[in-house]
Specification:
This protein is mostly helical and 114 residues long. Helices cover 26% and strands 0% of the residues.
Amino acid sequence: MASFNCFILAFFVALSFSSMYVSLAARNLLQLPPLPSVPNFPKPALPPMPTIPTLPQPTLPTTQPSLPSPSLPPLPSFPSVPKLTLPPLPSMPSIPTIPSTIPSIPFLSPPPGN
């Protein structure tokens, strides 16, 4: 955030310096002697525009010509492929069952007191 504030400050400083140079340049332009006026020259006459000839519009045919129908050769037949039989799948090993009950842990009784 500090670098952004520093950038904004540098931007405003640069903007203020540039406006000082612009004001000095404007003052110098105002102090110059007046420029001589531009003399009035006669305007040249342009030649007339040539006329564009009208060309005849082409006509497009409205009917399509009939094309001969081509005779197609018969499609090639594929050779017969013998039917493949897959070997039987191996049997999956059985998943061991996880006991659902937690075995009880025998608790030791405290020693008899004297």
